[in-house]
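Q: What structure does this chain adopt?
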Amino acid sequence: MTKLVVLKLDGDIKQGFQVTLEISSDYRYPHTKIEGSLPPVRDLLVRYHNWQTSYRSLGWEGRAIVPKGIAIDSSLKKRQEECYDLAIQLRRYLNEWLNSPSFSSIQKNWLANINSSEPLRVLISTENVYLRQLPWHLWDFLEDYYPEAEIALCTSEYQSPIYKKKSQQKPIKILAILGNSEGINVEKDRKILESLPNAQVTFLVEPQRQTLNDRLWEKSWDILFFAGHSKSQEKSGHISINPNDNLTLQELSEALKKTVKNGLQLAIFNSCDGLGLAYQLERLQIPQIVVMAEPVPDLVAQEFLKYFLNGFASGKSLYQAIREARKRLQGLEDKFPCASWLPVSCQNPAVDPFTYPLKKEKYPIQLPIIASAIATTLIIGMRSLGLLQIGELQTFDKLMRLRPDKGIDSRLLVVEATEEDLNRYGFPLPDEILARAIAKLESKQARVIGLDIFRDRPIGEGNSQLLQQIARDNFVAICSSQETNNPNKSGIAPPPNIPESRLGFSDVVVDPDGVVRRHLMFMQPSHNDPCATNHAFSIRIALQYLAAEGIEPQIAGRHQIKIGKAIFEELSANSGAYQGIDDRGFQILLNYRSPEKVARQVRLSEVLSDRINPEWIKDKIVLIGVSAPISSDNFFTPYSAGYFPYQKMPGITIQAQTTSQILSAVLDGEPLLSVWNDWGEGAWILAWSIVGGIIAWQSRSIWVWILIASSGILVLSAVCLGLLIAGIWVPLVPSAIATIITGGIVIVYKRHYDNRAIN
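A:
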């Protein structure tokens, strides 16, 4: 955070000056304001004029003398020594004046509010011509406590100009006026300007007034540069644009105002005696100005321009570049005394300092590829350890909830025993009630009847009638398999005398978070399992139905079963998001048909009272089960989180979902949910990782990257949803994370690359 200090001096050289210290951060309104005073300054000004007279006697008249490297005559050497001595005196008197007791409160509060390590800019705000001439950079207080600070001048009245904002990535536009070059060498200035990176320089060589005026009006410029002869008179001055024309800036005021409105940021007058010119330019609200305070030798002007522009164009701040260039001029002071005193900068406090638009770096083309390879390897490693499984499964659930509802499957009818039915008939349902219900369904010519209610022993009256009804060939019963290592699941036997061909297990596979996402179709029972079948209830029901269509299952290959034209492929322990799951038996992903009603649903009481449309039953699969909450046969599904509180799906509805999935795949050609192999998923993650890297590689800022990357992840989500609807579950979470990680790596590298390029 850059601190800005403004010292406002108001008064005169005879009476002294009232001083106001204002401190602000990041160009906001001042947060500290302290008042003090400085005594009359007449003695100091006498010392200044003595030094100025001595300096001007050296003969540096408007860059007119170019040292030839020959020996200096004794008279010039004596004047140089005198200039050195007067400079030392002036510096001493300046610091004595600034150390006045009446000014001490200013310095104390300054030290209390600003750490010496903080970036700092200092502005001297005054209308007094004599104070503006003083060498403020010699203030020992700044040298001792804030050696990196640079002092600039500003007027007491200023406002923020209204101008067009320009892209910081475009080349900087410079209008370079090479004025009257009699006795001076401006070609060196030209070469320095031509060597600037990311700059478009237009040169006007000894232009006519109208030509200069038109260029200022017609185009927008970032920097206005002048090299040639100039002279100041207190608060005004003039420049020599060609051998015949000397112009005051007032004569160019309208053109300069237009240039400021068009975005002019910096004026550099690399010519003699420019303080009066600077004052006029400040009045025109030009944001930043650099001039030479006194007559300047050619070599000094050229070296300063080279040092300053090279530093500024390399990424240094405007004032850092000015400070370093001014200090480097000390290397010329054996020939040109006080050369480092000459550059003076002025600033409009209402405008942020101008920054040189660095040319966009060409980052290594392989950067996004390398970053994506790193990110993809990391993500695949995390995925293989199961660290992403929960997030991927929850995201899968969200995508499932976004899929369109396929509506009811007209081939099925679900007869549910509701809480009202159980209150009427009792729980568990008596055999007599079940026998009556099955008889009603048989009379209406149901193709397959499946009873999703355990009946390993008689319940109530009517057992003989029930056994008679379930002996029919179109009836499928249910049982529950035994878990060898679980004493609480010893298995539940089927009703007596039911052949294995009409028997199916009720077991479902539940993921670690309690959600049913997989469909267990087959498994091998143990030798003493009371549920001696390897077919799930749903597959047994479906095969009974399909047998009437002449469709039988076939072994299609290892881990594949073919029913009709549909091929069911077994899940492995590491399929898709799953890592190390229990993959015993033949499992597939459960492709839910509908979150609400997978089939028509009727109550048991409606069947018993003949209030059902016979067409809903004839030649259909009819599943009978309990949906009342009293039953423990309820499960979380991908749709459960879409309700508050979470809702479970009755087991009878789960059986209808799994049965419908098989029929839809075989008879309707509906896609089964599948996943790619490891190589396919790895390539998918890598591809999106590369996309993330390219986005970051091309983004001009981190905020642009965040915006585009967020849009990219939305596109990724939409693509994943579309593929899921088409029956393919692809990695969304790993791809999104890889996109972000790759982009982050590229962004961090770009920042490091930029900083290295600047430094």
